[in-house]
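Quick one:
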Amino acid sequence: MAQKRSRREKYSGDNKKVGILNKSLNFIEVVGNKLPDPVTLFVLLSIITVIASYILSNMNIVSEYETLKDGVSEVVKVQVTNLFTKEAMANFLTSMVTNFTSFAPLGVVLVSMLGVGVAEGTGLIDALIKKLILSTPSRLVTIVVVFLGVLSNIASDAGYVVLVPLGAIIFKSFGRNPIAGIAAAFAGVSGGFSANLLIGTVDPLLSGLSQSAANIIDPSYVVNPTSNYYFMVVSTFLITIIGTLITEYIIIPRLEKSNNPDNFVEQVEVQNEDSFKFTKSEKKGLIYAGISLLILLIIIGIGLLPGGMLRNPETGSIINKSPFINGIVVILAFLFLIPGVFFGIGSGKIKKDSDIINSMSKSMSSMGSYLVLSFFAAQFINLFERSKIATIIAVDGAKFLEDIGFVGIPLIIGFILITGFINLFVGSASAKWAILAPVFVPLFMRLGYSPEFTQIAYRIGDSTTNIITPLLPYFPIIAMLIKKYDKKSGIGTLISLMLPYSIAFLISWIVLLILWMFLKLPLGPEAFIFLK
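Output:
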């Protein structure tokens, strides 16, 4: 029958007609794939960082930036720390365990996987995918995956853990290339990090830093967590549309033309609707899961009521330093765990408590390679931060734009570009903004621009290069996920896949910001582009 086709038939194509874009991306992929294994790469980067710290510290390179401490403005001087000393090496040796255990993505991934493992092991995720496939027209699957990727940012970094693998599974279920599903989901989750329909965990963090920087000029200035909300909402739809177009018209055609079917680990089959009909046990399981989810959401809702346990006990805030935001990863794990358990009970997959534990254990057993990667990535990140090289790059890069005297739109574009460049080396959004804000917020205020406007310009640059930097903690994990479907892939494959998204997001977001400037639209509630 013509309904089932092997991946060789579906993804083979005429390689003779290769455009300039595909040639460029193919070159990037080839060069990138010559990079060492991610673990080896982090080891080499750690060695290079130590050597560079020794050289740069002896050159007496000093950078300085202005910050606010206890309401008083002070100048902070930064010099590269020599890591090639007895004291530094001894300190690194004794901190290797804590570097690993305090590695931020580690807890997020492992805790999330406890819940996801149960939902996957009992068949809940497969059943939900069936429902999605039956209710979503194939022509809309890409836009749905990208859109959900953008929205997943509300759950901290869990989108990397949950949605990106699901993107591959969903695309595969539709008979499409699962690697394209990974790219679409990753573009939404990471490339659209500063777009959402809801206020997320990063908003109060960045607004607090923006306010501190603004207080250097105006001690009474207040920057609210909702200061970029209107722009974020519009950006959600912009990123969803652009991400969908890039996936459909660049990524999928490129995969069809350039992928060698012999490299694929699995075959993709086009399924007909009958193969996704629910069994009686699955229907019963979904009813049980739905009821348990509803009860869980009601409990969470009660906790969010005024005076509830999920609000900040001092301020009553849901967003700012509340148990709800601080515990969002655990809450997400329960949102998978509880319905997963009840789905298993309803469908007959869970008959005793050991079945639940076995599902958790199975999901943890698949994390071995991730744990190895996390250990070496954590050591490199710690060395890079301790050396102060990252700080020097950020401070000097920021001052470069200030010194060349850009004004107006060229200044805005230049600031976004330098932020995107710095993001290739310094992954933490808050760490970069803590350094850049005291330089650029006062500078922009002197030119008449509000701190809220400077902040959104920063967020654009920070988001658009997330998906092309190997220093993003989740980047090697996504690369390993692609290897599950293409055994010859590597870091270069992922970079070449995501570069079109990065460029398109950057250009479209800059255009949107310039249009926003001309129309003088508010960025959020009581937040405007220009100072009054």
